[in-house]
Amino acid sequence: MAQASGVPDRLRPIDERILRLLDAEGIQVRIDIERRLSLSNCVTATRCRSLVERDLVRNSNWCCYQITEEGRRRLRADR
């Protein structure tokens, strides 16, 4: 996804942490993401929703999240 300037957007550090957790652990319930990364409910919900909208994460149930292949590519690209 590109910003209006045409420069690809970089992952926020918190988004990268969520993607790395999902890449390492597989499907996670949102509350487990909160606990494992010491995030608030509101922050986790907002960031997960943003990752879903960018097709980096799949919402496989109302509160279960899984990294997509696009999410894995972004992790590798941002290293």
UniProtKB/TrEMBL annotation:
InterPro entries linked to this entry: WH-like_DNA-bd_sf, WH_DNA-bd_sf
Species of origin: Haladaptatus paucihalophilus DX253
Protein name per UniProt: Uncharacterized protein
Gene3D superfamilies (UniProt xref): Winged helix-like DNA-binding domain superfamily/Winged helix DNA-binding domain
